[in-house]
Amino acid sequence: MGFSNWYNRTLNRIWGFVEDRTSMKKWALRPQPEFTFKPSYWTGAFVVNAFLYQVVSGALLLLYYQPSTAPTLTACGQPVGAYSAAPAAWCSTYYILHSVPMGSLLLTSHLYGAYAMIFLMFVHFFRGYYLGVYKAPREFSWMVGTLLMILTLGMGFTGYLLPYTQLSYNATNVGIVLALRLPTIGPLLGPFILADGTAQGLLSRMFDAHVLLIPLGLAALLYAHIALFESHGIAPPATSDPTQRRRYNEKEDKSHVPFMPHIFWYITKWGLLYVGLLLGIAALWPWSLPTYVGNLAAAGVVTEPDWYFLWLFKFVDFQYVTPVLAIGVTTVLILYFLFLPYLDRSKRTHPRDRPFFIWLATSFLEFFVLMTVWGGETPGVQIAPMLVAETLGPLFLVTGIAVALFYWRYRRNYLKRLAARGTPFLGVYALPTAAPAAPVGASEVKSSE
Length: 449
Hints:
By secondary structure, the chain is mainly alpha-helical. The protein contains 16 helices and 2 strands.
């Protein structure tokens, strides 16, 4: 403890000098409460760290990648004739993997980094859902975050085609067919996605979207998301008190830990750990490049997307589920999550006070995981309606019963506590009017546990 206190005091003095000379305090992010120094409070920062690594590694890959379907006779580092007339996009990917110093590590970490970013994004999104961070005054922040999630999935979709393998080409075509089924938007997207209808036009559009258009949209939405975060501050712990304040005032901010340098170094620590783990995994399990588009050996390749779209591809395998129906259900899900702050109007944020919405989220997560595994095990195999009902019905039913039992137990204990205090029950979404609103801060941690 002695060394820790000395280190913190020294760091504060050094940084105080830097702030005085640079006025950095005026543009640093706002301070945060001490109880937020837990990984669960910074899942959004983890997504940003993953995004930054994708930007850096992607920029390095651009030095070697050629977005062209034109055949090349360079044999891609193999004996002449072994890979003759392979597309330049595939050959440049092969060159990165086999000829560029540490190219395999770079490309593999970029691919695994995309998977990690999407996974962390899901963790951040559903953490916010379960803890009710979308409630007032953070409705717009939630909606911007939902749009960020959609664009991140778009980054994964457009990047999947760039190595120009037969597997990615088939999966991209199926995805485009589904995208064109979107009501109203689909026909408008067609000319922008398909270009002149050639394979080169499609690859060029996917490349432009992946390296320019979607990153610009992500950057703009990320700026808006951070600006809204700065406006409201970090969401306090979930609580059953509907009168609890949901933001910190200026006086409370002054007592919090400053962003620079404490929070900055805290996030940097986790960011470096993420990069180290990512590079280690990429080194141990390097990616193997599948065969290129047009290779006769690829005739038996099974169409299969990356894991985050497997659930949708398997959904289309259900008998009587057409692409139009699948994309319609997906659209409804997107609209539900986007406008969730205006659907869940209760003022309580604790999961135990929102049984219906918790059941919906849990059921969707179970459906997503089950369909992802199902799609990976039996891609392209049609599923009969009876098997769907026998598999999904009990799952959703058991989830509903479990949520209902937990809510019933909590409600019974809650009424007992009110009776013990001699206060009246004013309804499931109200507390006694005599109870004062507790201040936002570390004291709320106890109410969320």
